[in-house]
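Lab meeting, item 3. Inverse folding demo.
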């Protein structure tokens, strides 16, 4: 009985302590929860389709930069305020920026950087997918490249080299100093899209329409260092950083110390929440404490500065959330337009298929008619000869038939003539005898019988 009483008291104290926790901290924990499931293959194909055919060096920069959405937005705004900076002058100006090297690299690709900033939701999703599913993202890139290669739309050109090593497809610039950015229609380049519910995105230069095949944005001059300091290790499924190929826009003291695989830098994330808890824990991001738990920070400047930095991160997240709202609306419009475009393309393909089948049927009918006509022409001499033989045979049969009838007719006449002659001879003989004996009346009587017989 005593043990049961102690158990009930302990249980009551536990329940009271649970309900006495500050509600704000509980709310913050619940607000922090993000979807933990992985991106599906359909979603990965949708977000990677417009960039999977980028050269490896550029694609690796895009994937790394997408994990820092705040810095992407800041870099895009800075580039737009300084349109005159290009080449070496741009590299010199980027030295003082605290952005990640991948974000600085994208400053040379103003159009791509502008698309990444305008479509920050898609960019953030791409970065979250690469952080949580790096191997699956790289496998999907290879799958998309294999489909384009199988369709005959991914080949070596004057702008790029396509290298196939077993099951791996590598894309490199034809000239390391010039990087050409491809843009294309995913519905055409990969063949019939196999996930109709997840139509691929379109990343094209502003004011340019997508045409059939692969087109290229204007080339950019980067020098030797741009395209060689990062590349894919397709076998081990990660991005490799070559420390000896430091780009011109990164200072010595801000460059990595030794070569190896690329690792995400949480400080460049600028407080943007990760999509799932496992990724957040991996990079040291935990739920922020409520303001009630920070009263002891008053009077300590360094702690106040830390709190001010935390508030700035919260403001940044709020601004991103507002941007997400607008992006969601624009994304809905784009999805609707893309679905309509997909339906039109589907109808056009079905109409073309029907026309092709109709042409095939017409061709088959034409071939049958031609074959029948050839057979008829080939049989015509034989038919003519056969009809000629039949005519000759009929004439012969008719002639033979007429001869038989003539013989029959001639025989009857001959018999009748013979009969008449015989009777006449008998009559003449009897008359002479009767005349000699009794007179001419008997002879006349014989003549009357002969006439009656006739």
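The presenter then showed the designed sequence:
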């Amino acid at each position: 009985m005593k043990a049961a009483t102690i158990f009930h008291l302990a249980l009551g104290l536990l329940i009271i302590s649970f309900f006495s926790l500050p509600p704000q901290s509980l709310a913050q924990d619940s607000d922090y929860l993000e979807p933990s499931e992985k991106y599906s293959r359909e979603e990965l194909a949708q977000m990677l389709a417009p960039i999977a055919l980028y050269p490896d060096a550029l694609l690796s920069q895009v994937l790394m930069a997408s994990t820092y959405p705040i810095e992407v937005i800041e870099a895009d705004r800075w580039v737009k305020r300084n349109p005159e900076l290009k080449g070496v002058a741009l590299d010199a100006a980027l030295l003082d920026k605290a952005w990640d090297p991948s974000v600085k690299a994208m400053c040379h690709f103003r159009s791509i950087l502008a698309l990444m900033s305008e479509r920050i939701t898609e960019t953030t999703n791409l970065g979250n997918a690469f952080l949580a599913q790096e191997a699956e993202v790289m496998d999907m890139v290879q799958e998309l490249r294999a489909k384009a290669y199988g369709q005959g739309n991914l080949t070596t050109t004057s702008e790029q080299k396509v290298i196939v090593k077993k099951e791996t497809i590598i894309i490199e610039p034809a000239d390391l100093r010039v990087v050409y950015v491809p843009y294309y229609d995913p519905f055409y380049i990969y063949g019939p899209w196999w996930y109709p519910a997840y139509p691929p995105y379109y990343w094209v230069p502003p004011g340019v329409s997508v045409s059939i095949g692969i087109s290229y944005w204007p080339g950019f001059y980067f020098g030797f260092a741009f395209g060689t300091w990062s590349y894919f290790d397709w076998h081990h499924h990660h991005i490799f950083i070559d420390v000896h190929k430091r780009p011109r826009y990164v200072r010595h003291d801000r460059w990595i110390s030794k070569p190896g695989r690329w690792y995400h830098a949480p400080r460049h994330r600028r407080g943007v929440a990760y999509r799932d808890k496992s990724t957040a824990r991996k990079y040291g991001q935990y739920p922020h404490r409520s303001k009630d738990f920070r009263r002891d920070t008053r009077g300590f400047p360094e702690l106040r500065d830390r709190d001010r930095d935390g508030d700035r991160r919260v403001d940044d997240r709020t601004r991103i959330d507002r941007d997400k709202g607008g992006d969601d609306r624009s994304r809905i419009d784009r999805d609707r337009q893309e679905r309509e475009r997909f339906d039109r393309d589907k109808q056009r393909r079905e109409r073309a298929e029907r026309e092709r089948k109709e042409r095939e049927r017409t061709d088959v009918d034409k071939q049958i008619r031609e074959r029948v006509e050839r057979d008829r022409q080939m049989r015509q001499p034989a038919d003519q000869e056969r009809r000629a033989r039949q005519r000759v045979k009929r004439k012969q049969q008719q002639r033979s038939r007429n001869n038989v009838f003539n013989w029959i007719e001639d025989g009857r006449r001959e018999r009748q003539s013979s009969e008449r002659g015989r009777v006449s001879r008998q009559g003449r003989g009897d008359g002479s005898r009767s005349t000699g004996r009794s007179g001419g009346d008997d002879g006349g009587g014989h003549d009357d019988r002969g006439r009656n017989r006739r």
